[in-house]
Design a protein that fits this description.
Layout (H helix, E strand, L loop, with lengths): L2 H15 L7 E7 L18 H9 L1 E7 L5 H10 L23 E2 L14 H7 L3 E5 L18 E3 L15 E2 L2 E2 L12 H15 L5 E6 L11 H4 L13 H23 L6 E7 L29 H4 E7 L9 E3 L3 E2 L3 H9 L12 H6 L9 E5 L10 E6 L2 E6 L5 E5 L15 H18 L5 E2 L14 E4 L4 E3 L4 E3 L6 E3 L7 E8 L3 E11 L7 E6 L2 E6 L5 E15 L3 E9 L9 E10 L1
Parallel strand pairs: 1-8, 1-9, 2-11, 2-12, 4-5, 4-8
Antiparallel strand pairs: 2-10, 3-17, 6-7, 9-10, 13-14, 14-15, 15-16, 18-28, 19-22, 20-21, 22-27, 23-26, 23-28, 24-25, 24-27
Helix pairs in contact: 5-7
């Protein structure tokens, strides 16, 4: 029997061992913004997570688990309902980022939260006699959309906010207090308090079957940790796992998990409690106003907010003392946060008329067969705070397709052989692109996914008051296979320009016509210089030869010519390599047009 069959059989044995007269408890722990590579059991050499490592060592660790969205609120919808969040119109964090003039598309309208008509896992289990509690982040609405109205008997710390009002007691800010934490002693750390509240819930309900939903605020920004823990960690290198505050927050999260596991043992409930641990999206790997990125998801590409693996692949650990298998099993089957709802119901032996989009893992476990599914999907029609653009994605087998809604551009990756998504195979595999694009379009129609619409007030890269026009690499539209923009803390530039056929395109809004000097900020490694590049600025062309600068990230500002623009309005700019004598054309950080007399 292969290791996948063994790991699926493990949970099957656990589920079968739970008699209907003595239904299992369920503890579902959801971390916030925790990356797929942040735990020790997932390969981190910097973070300290002994309790979660032991949990994985006693149970099953999934290597290809996904969140239903690269940001939080939609994934929370998927966890609670087993459905793709697009069915409810929840496609971004709530209330989401407002539209801006520099966006080509307008976002779809978002609801106020998880609609009342949605059937939650708490409602189903409560109807089956379970005591239900949520302790931690809600972020899915208030009033009639609050946890108490969505099937939970107990709500502590859950409201409509996406970030904690404070990580240290008193847990409040100008807009209010976190419910249920009003009497916490001053200075207490939020993650510690949530762990204690979870332990109290377990002790109070030990005689009944219970469902505990424990969505921690950690490790979401702002990065606020206990000083003594933070002092243990030395700062790492930019772009790597090496943020002391984040590491300390994660250590506290791990300790809170340990507190829950200890209470289950104290109450003699470990033998009949299913424990699930996962995250709502990938780790935040961009600066987003901070001096250092919280984490790195390497070798996964990018992080929170992106449809690349770093933004949507998450840790998933399932454990319970009744799991009869070799400790520390690993599963490589593709699973998603939409699968938790049907799996929990099957493990608990509870029936429901709800029709989730997810696949019950427990059903597959019982037959000891490898999980098979056609595909999993994503739809994120928004401009993320982290810098990504509206798009959708589908993974089917080892293939993953990303589609960008501004232009219809496709990127295709084999995520089994290329987990870093370094090689876009869209031009090499047009039949695969066509097939997956059709699947994605059909799925969007099925779930009623709302698409972004053209922005009538689109005004890209407006001219500054002094007449200067700055075209930063992050505003470029790339065409071709390999050229990409890489955000901070990595490169903050257009890079991977390894194909001469790849081109970059910009637009800007000109108010004051005139003559302009054209300056490029370019870098180029040794023995890669000499590429001839054509700039087309509103029909006026300038050609320059790339200079070696001693490294692709050693940037040099170079004035390469002049152009005359005689009409105000939107102006198009293209950057087209004509030759590529080295391994890459160049790295390009920005183009600046400076008015001249």
């Amino acid at each position: 029997m292969n290791r996948f069959a063994v790991c699926w059989l493990a949970v099957a044995l656990f589920a079968a061992a739970a008699p209907a007269a003595d239904p299992p408890n369920v503890v579902l722990i959801l971390a916030d913004d925790l990356g797929a590579r942040d735990l020790g059991c997932y390969g981190s050499k910097y973070h300290k997570t002994p309790n979660l490592d032991r949990l994985a060592g006693s149970g099953i660790q999934f290597t290809d688990a996904y969140a239903a969205c690269p940001v939080c609120s939609p994934t929370r919808v998927s966890v609670l309902t087993g459905k793709y969040p697009q069915r409810f119109g929840v496609t971004d964090w709530l209330p989401g980022r407002a539209d801006r003039p520099d966006q080509k598309l307008l976002r779809p309208k978002l609801p106020d939260g998880l609609p009342s008509e949605a059937v939650t896992i708490a409602e189903v289990l409560k109807g089956a006699g379970y005591v239900t509690g949520t302790i931690g982040k809600w972020h899915l609405g208030t009033g009639e959309l609050a946890p108490e109205k969505q099937g939970f008997d107990v709500n502590i710390a859950g409201d409509g906010t996406g970030t904690p009002r404070s990580y240290f007691a008193p847990f409040q800010n100008k807009s209010g207090k976190m419910p249920g934490l009003e009497t916490a002693p001053d200075g207490e750390y939020l993650t510690d308090r949530l762990g204690e509240e979870a332990a109290k819930f377990i002790a109070a309900n030990k005689a009944k079957p219970f469902f505990l939903y424990l969505p921690h605020y950690a490790v979401h920004t702002p990065l606020k940790a206990k000083p003594d823990l933070e002092a243990k960690y030395k700062k790492g290198n930019p772009g790597s796992q090496g943020n002391p505050a984040y590491a300390a927050m994660l250590e506290s999260l791990d300790a809170a998990v340990g507190r829950v596991l200890a209470e289950l043992k104290t109450q003699n409930l470990s033998d009949r409690t299913l424990v699930i641990f996962t995250s709502d999206n990938g780790g935040l790997a961009t600066l987003e106003g901070m001096p250092a990125a919280p984490t790195s998801n390497a070798p996964l590409r990018e992080g929170k907010g992106y449809l690349y693996e770093g933004g949507i692949r998450v840790p998933l650990i399932v454990s319970g003392s009744g799991v009869r298998t070799k400790p520390g099993s690993h599963c490589g089957d593709v699973v998603s946060s939409i699968d938790l709802f049907p799996t929990i119901l099957d493990v608990c032996g509870v029936k429901s008329d709800a029709k989730p989009d997810g696949v019950s893992i427990e059903t597959q476990l019982r037959s000891a067969e490898k999980l098979t599914r056609d595909a999993v999907y994503w739809h994120y029609p928004h401009y993320a705070n982290q810098g990504s653009r509206p798009g959708g994605a589908v993974r089917s087998g080892d293939w993953k397709l990303i589609e960008y809604y501004e232009t219809g551009r496709h990127e295709l990756f084999n995520v089994k052989s290329d987990v870093s998504e370094s090689r876009n195979l869209a031009l090499d595999k047009p039949d695969v692109v066509k097939d997956l694009a059709a699947k994605l379009a059909a799925w969007r129609k099925d779930v009623g996914a709302k698409m972004p619409t053209p922005n009538p007030d689109y005004a890209p890269n407006p001219q500054a008051d002094d007449g200067t026009v700055t075209l930063h690499a992050r505003t470029a539209e790339v065409r071709g296979a390999m050229l990409r923009f890489e955000p901070l803390p990595h490169k903050n530039t257009l890079g991977f320009w390894v194909r001469k056929e790849d081109t970059a395109h910009f637009e800007f809004t000109l108010k004051s016509p005139g003559k302009f000097a054209v300056e490029v900020l370019q870098g180029c490694g040794t023995k890669s210089g000499g590429a001839d590049v054509e700039l087309d600025v509103g029909g006026e062309k300038v050609t320059f030869t790339v200079e070696e600068t001693g490294g692709f990230q050693n940037f040099k500002a170079r004035e390469v010519g002049t152009v005359t623009l005689d009409k105000p309005g939107r102006v198009a700019v293209s950057v087209t390599p004509k030759t590529k004598p080295g391994v890459a054309v160049m790295d390009l950080r920005q183009i600046v047009l400076k008015p001249t007399k």
